[in-house]
Amino acid sequence: MERSDILRAGAMIIVFVLFLVALHVIHRRPAERPVSDAPSASTPDDLSAELLRCAELGPQDAEDPHCQAVWKENRARFFGRPARPLLPQAAPATPPTTSTPQGEKP
What we know:
- The protein is mostly helical.
- 47% of the residues lie in helices and 0% in strands.
């Protein structure tokens, strides 16, 4: 055997070993993540409740300042900034609806 044949065989063995190492790295299991004490995403919070309330409001209440603040906090939470807890606020004041016709007096 000549020297070039030995070098070629050595290079092929090195390439084969690198291939096996790459396969091992690709198929190894990820390390188990420790369980955190953070609340899960499925746990409803005050912000989620306020988002639902604002979503149920009609287009006439789209300019509600409280709902705009809630949506702003939701965007902050979505983009990774910690959301500040919002205090629940009563529904916006709307004129009471009556079931009496306008021509009659109650």
